[in-house]
Amino acid sequence: MESTTTSSKTIGRPQDGDPHHVLAPSSVTDDRTRVLKHGDTFAVFDHLGQIKPGGLGEEGMYHEGTRYLSCLVLELDGQAPFFLGSTVRDGNDQLSVALTNPDRMKAGRVEVPLGTLHLSVRTLLWQGACHWRLRIRNHGTAPVNASIQLRFQADFADIFEVRGMKRKARGRDLPPDLETARVVLGYLGLDGEERRSSLRFSPPPQDLTVDRARFELTVSPHGEVAYDLAVACWRGDSTVDPPTFEAAQTAAEASLERLRTGSCRIRATDGRFDAWLRRSESDLNMMTSELSTGPYPYAGVPWFNTPFGRDGIITALESLWLRPELARGVLAYLAANQATEIIPAQDAEPGKILHEVRNGEMAVVGEMPFGRYYGSVDATPLFVLLAGAFYERTADISFTRALWPHVEAALNWIDDYGDRDGDGLVEYGRQTEEGLIHQGWKDSDDAISHADGTLAIGPIALCEVQSYVYAARRAGATLAAALEMPARAVELERQAEALRERFEAAFWCDDLGTYALALDGNKRPCLVRTSNAGQCLFGGIAAPDRAARVARGLMSPDFFSGWGIRTLATIERRFNPMSYHNGTVWPHDNALIAYGASRYGLKDLAAGVLAGLFAAGTYFDLNRMPELFCGFPREPGEGPIPYPVACAPQAWAAGSTVLLLQACLGLRVSALDRQVWFHQPHLPPFVPELRITNLSLADATVDLHLVRHGDDVGVNVLRRVGELSIVVTK
């Protein structure tokens, strides 16, 4: 229909209207993204629920490492609708966006005022497809004619292309298939795989081309019209037609309800704290994909939506007391993908645990080594640590027996390959120039340095890795004893104690009051104050008096920003509050440190970290803990500064909240003892009450009500089914 519009917000007097009317032809900008994920499919939208070409770079709908939709832009009468609001529901299952029409002008007059049409967009992902529904309701007193246009594209870019990697060549676009209500866009990759995006419209548009769909509509007063779009990702010979919007929505909501019903849940009386916990719970649920081996928490969106060994293990450890089935799925998957031979191009060695797996085009054709990559020095000992913790949590001896050969292979890797120079410590060094230079959790190129800022040269022995190995050997000893192998148990305990003594002698720096970050290839200590030393408390290798000194240092202003513990002290040469690993705050790092400190009886650190990270979480969009944030000091009346390309959601960031709570409560859940134990439980002042429901222990379950009384916490049993005991020590 004929109309004229203005291009910017204007204050003026319409020729025949209210002299105080403020014209609103367009909405304000907003750079927040909205994320959905289901299985191997995820989508990153802008605040309008759209995918803009270019956009923030990562916007798009992705499936199995490829972007299947690179543009989805809604236009109303040839321009962007006016933005009202958007949110991802608490369950992380659906994105809801509210839009309206801008003031529509004709001959200098307001023909359709702002707010006449309400455009409601609801989006969800289900089984490899994106389901999009637009409802338009007329709240005016006269019929409104309008034109809706959807622009779309599919660039089939590999996730590494989106991240900025340049390719020497790529495949070719396939001829599009165009029907009355469907268009199929295709791409033939260099891996010989066909990938197709099928866009199905209902009802059929008045005009459909290979890159846009146009609908002409008339909405009567208080009437409503609706349009659906389903975007299915087809790979190879797969041409499965997705269900209707209603069917997908019903299935997604039913799946979420089943998960909620069967899971242990935490609820707080403080509304903000409860929202923080609920978003973390939802993020864990969303990041978890069902694989043939069981549930596995993918690392993070958008760059790491795939199984990572280290991330999966740490997420499982963080949430073990809450969701032990997650640990079982992680252990089963990593055991099934454990390395069995030396493959230098993959940094693989027998017994080593996977770092990451990718199945996108660039990984399949070998343009990078990450298709199946083992360049992680810590995933292998952490795998053994998790196996031991899972056995204590569940007493599942049959699974433990089946897992033992993989545990033994991992322990053998530590001895045969991890200790590269025979000095009793575990070091790393890549076998391929395409692999990661640094192979601990701080894996950026500048993460490991000396006090003068010079980068350390490998092979490198990280302090926290020795702690993981110590804990792994002790866990292996527990498993060996349970499987009636006493000689192996004794040997592993002996190895653990020998490592502890070697570690204290090689890493403790009395002048710094902490452990050295690492030993370089010349066995020269990296005399740098880092959060890595705090993770030595998590593994339990630190002597108690030295653990207390480390904890005091980590809570000093040099480390503690007010929001959390920085990865690097402010007085160090390479400190930068915006550096990925040299000054930022990582929630999972803080949670591991806090849990370790709690086990040493250092509850003040755990309580301080919980309070800081919770305060930070209230400022982040959707109360979501990001992968990391900047390490600037906390200022009165100001929030934390986000890290510009942090993944959110991130699995181990989501898991950090439940581990922090466990640390403060001194909580231990043991099916071996049939006991839930609270040692010197603490709740922060802003959490007067807490409920834990459906906490499982073998064949028993319990509901608990925790109440804060000053500095004390009372634990009340609301419901108990089966045999278990609740022990509270003060």
Description:
The protein is α+β, with helices and mostly antiparallel strands and 730 residues long. It folds into two domains: 10-254, Distorted Sandwich (Beta-galactosidase, Chain A, domain 5); 263-665, Glycosyltransferase (Alpha/alpha barrel), CATH 1.50.10.10. An eight-stranded antiparallel beta sheet has the order 8-9-12-13-20-17-16-15, with helices on one face. Strands 3-4-5-6 form a four-stranded antiparallel beta sheet, with no helix packed on it. A four-stranded antiparallel beta sheet has the order 7-14-19-18, with no helix packed on it. α14 packs across α15 (651-665). The longest helix has 22 residues, at 397-418. It is globular and about 85 Å long. Residues 1-29 have low confidence and may be disordered.
Secondary structure topology:
Blueprint: E1 10-11, E2 22-23, E3 33-38, E4 41-46, E5 60-63, E6 66-69, E7 71-76, E8 82-88, E9 94-100, E10 104-106, E11 109-112, E12 117-126, E13 129-138, E14 144-153, H1 159-162, E15 172-178, E16 182-188, E17 194-202, E18 207-208, E19 212-219, E20 224-235, H2 245-262, E21 265-268, H3 271-287, E22 288-291, E23 294-297, H4 309-318, H5 324-336, E24 356-357, H6 361-364, E25 372-373, H7 379-394, H8 397-418, E26 461-462, H9 463-482, H10 486-507, E27 508-509, E28 514-515, E29 518-519, H11 532-539, H12 544-554, H13 587-599, H14 603-617, H15 651-665, E30 667-670, E31 675-679, E32 689-697, E33 700-709, E34 712-721, E35 725-729
Parallel strand pairs: 31-35
Antiparallel strand pairs: 1-2, 3-4, 4-5, 5-6, 7-14, 8-9, 9-12, 10-11, 12-13, 13-20, 14-19, 15-16, 16-17, 17-20, 18-19, 21-32, 22-23, 24-25, 26-29, 27-28, 30-31, 32-33, 33-34
